[in-house]
Design a protein that fits this description.
298 residues, alpha+beta, Alpha-Beta Plaits, 2 domains, 4-stranded antiparallel sheet, 4 strands, 62% helix, elongated
Length: 298
């Protein structure tokens, strides 16, 4: 019983966390500005449920707020079942606020230039979506569709969303013309890039993997000089063409940094060992350990 009470308390605090709610509200403001000021007046589509809502609104003149609520409702339920209660509550709040904003906020079209509409509409929409994601929810059920469908048929999230959007833009090309569909694709591409930047930002974490014969010096540099947390894997190096049978034990040193620090660490390692093998991998998220420790040269 106490465990359930503790779980409920944690969930409640996550739901009503003020920074999360602020990000959701700010994200909705950007999304409403994008849709009312750029996309809807010009029949430009975004991807996912937002794109379907605008499409149905233009084809059948159904109230856009009603469509946003109805089309996302089933995905809020699926999100509750497959992702969690906190996610579902945040998504429900975001969708309701978006519907209210679309219903009551009136914005005159900001520009008639199609390229500006596609680019700035996409930037604003992507920024809004990204802020809502940072707040713990979504305003587009396509993300939930991807998670749900992936478990059923095995396609990746990107493949599922891509197929979903191909159908939307194909209908847009038939109904509104190929030019509008192409501009809508620019809008979606811009929005997706803006979303990625807002969610991960310039501090997107990166894994740096280093193989060096001077591994002790490299470990000392990273841990004691730069203040980085490191992990060391035991491995083998060699197996080269022409000398396949020659091999040697080695240590693979791994540290997690932000992408702003990559060049600094690469230069320092190469200075120690010009023949060091360094490869870099992007990672979506990292928690715990020693992260974001600032290094000030002395």
């Amino acid at each position: 019983m106490r465990k359930k009470q503790l779980t409920d308390h944690i969930e409640w605090n996550k739901v009503w966390n003020i920074p999360n709610q602020f990000q959701i509200i700010l994200g909705i403001i950007f999304a409403v500005l994008a849709m009312k000021g750029f996309l809807i007046p010009n029949r430009f589509l975004d991807g996912g449920i937002t794109g379907i809502s605008i499409l149905l609104h233009e084809l059948f003149h159904i109230n856009i707020s009603f469509l946003v609520i109805c089309l996302n409702g089933i995905f809020i339920y699926l999100g509750y079942r497959w992702i969690g209660k906190t996610f579902a509550v945040h998504t429900a709040i975001a969708v309701i606020l978006l519907s209210i904003g679309l219903l009551f906020v009136e914005i005159n079209p900001i520009t008639s230039d199609k390229l500006l509409i596609a680019i700035f509409g996409g930037i604003l929409m992507g920024t809004g979506v990204g802020l809502v994601i940072r707040g713990g929810g979504v305003i587009d059920g396509a993300e939930v569709i991807a998670v749900f469908t992936k478990r059923k048929i095995g396609f990746s999230n990107s493949e599922i969303i891509m197929l979903f959007n191909i159908m939307i833009f194909s209908v847009a090309a038939i109904e509104f013309g190929i030019e509008t569909a192409m501009y809508s694709i620019i809008t979606y591409f811009t929005a997706s890039k803006a979303t990625h930047y807002v969610v991960y930002g310039i501090e997107e974490y990166t894994s740096i993997n280093i193989v060096s014969t001077k591994h002790e010096e490299v470990k000392n540099l990273l841990a004691n000089v730069m203040g980085k947390g490191i992990t060391v894997y035991k491995g083998e190096r060699g197996y080269l063409p022409g000398s396949y049978s020659i091999k040697a034990d080695c240590e693979i040193i791994v540290t997690i940094v932000t992408r702003l620090e990559i060049k600094q660490i690469e230069d320092a390692v190469i200075l120690l060992d010009p023949k060091a093998f360094i490869y870099i991998q992007s990672i979506k998220e990292a928690t715990g350990g020693i992260l974001k420790v600032r290094y000030d040269a002395k």
